[in-house]
Amino acid sequence: MLDIRLSHHMAGPSVDGMQKQEKIAFLGLGRMGAPMARRLLAAGHPLTVWNRTPARAEPLVAEGAVLAGSPAGAVRDADVVITMLAGPDALTAVADAVVPELRPGMTWVEMSTVGPDAVRELGARLKDGVGLVDAPVMGSTDRAAEGGLGILAGGDTAGVEQILAHLGTVTRTGPPGSGAALKLVVNTAVIGGVGLVAEALRLAAALGLDGDTAREALAAGPLGGAVARAFADGAHFATDLAVKDLRIATAAARLPVAEAVSAHFRQAAEDPVVARADLARAVPRIVRTVHTAPRTPVNIALDNPVGAPGPANAHYSQVARVEHADGSALLFLSGQIAEGATLAEQTQGVFETIEALLGPHGATLADIISIRTYLTDIAGLDEYGAVRRRFLTGTPPTSMTFEVPRLFRPEAQVEIEVVAAVRPV
């Protein structure tokens, strides 16, 4: 019996000699864009290309493509516009030039990894009658050259199905923006897996295990795919682009694990060679950096300095000192209030108390790095600020000011808490 199943995937193009070959404008000829554009040129589509660095277009021009001097010039006579750019900022810059040139009946296929917000913003700028498909791709340069990419397409693909089929297999993901969203989800998982493998190997080293043995054990388990990607040879997903994708992802949702992974790859990408190389190149650097990072002992002490005003009751301490082995420390002072008939008098009393609390710890008002102020009436901000400036005369610390209905003591008009840094002797 035949097993016949309907699929939402589109296979290769149908061959129809009478089918119109749409004029395509392809903008962005990076590592992925160039082989993709070459596939469309080989399929017989009239192709106009543009790239920020024109020299990248020379091989395609030699094969029959037309080089435009600007994005606007590239799209002027096109039926379909395809963009394969570095990120949201590049897309916005290109859109500024291209949108005025678009006419009803054209379709913009956005294939970069820019996130759903950028796609929605682009859609809002398009004229009525101009179609938009977001179709980011899965796969590296080898699959781009072979037409074997996975394409995650959001929006109405009806008018561009045959074009996309030259590039790979299309999965329809839903409305515009859904392709970009799914690509971001997939990339975040892939990058996170690579970062997890790097940390697992760091743990193996810390426990005295042989690195190759640990790698083989990881590869044989559920993380086999992540291990393969972490040590892939021939793939190219630049480390700086991975950092860009994680930046978009962590802006969309609170992702503590992705934020930690992003910190690893950002540090690795400080080396320009690693930044441009596949993210697998970052793995040894992450393992090495994390493994060799010194652990700094921390001592935490709670204190009510002798000679300084005591707390209002015995249920809290005035100062928390977090001290490192080199003698440097952070001082966290609890919120301070003071007596006085006016806001100015209370503010002066608070800063005098803060100064008295810092002194026994080897710090002064100049060492304050962060200050948080609570006022019962924000209208008194100028009066408070005038006094504060008499005490804090150097570089202003980071600052937040809040209006609250009342403080711990009903007569209090201001409460201040600070963080100060103690330099090593």
Automatic annotation (TrEMBL):
**CDD domains per the UniProt record, alphabetical:** YjgF_YER057c_UK114_family
Under which name does UniProt file this protein? Answer: 6-phosphogluconate dehydrogenase NADP-binding domain-containing protein
Q: Which organism is it from?
A: Streptomyces alanosinicus
Its BP terms in the Gene Ontology are: organic acid catabolic process
Q: Which GO terms describe its molecular function?
A: NADP binding; oxidoreductase activity
Gene3D superfamilies noted in UniProt? N-(1-d-carboxylethyl)-l-norvaline Dehydrogenase, domain 2, NAD(P)-binding Rossmann-like Domain, RutC-like
Short name of any one Pfam family annotated for the protein: NAD_binding_2
Question: Residue limits of the 6-phosphogluconate dehydrogenase NADP-binding domain?
Answer: 23-169
Matching entries from InterPro entries are given as: 3-OH-isobutyrate_DH-rel_CS, 6-PGluconate_DH-like_C_sf, 6PGD_dom2, 6PGDH_NADP-bd, HIBADH-related_NP60_sf, NAD(P)-bd_dom_sf, RutC-like_sf, YjgF/YER057c/UK114
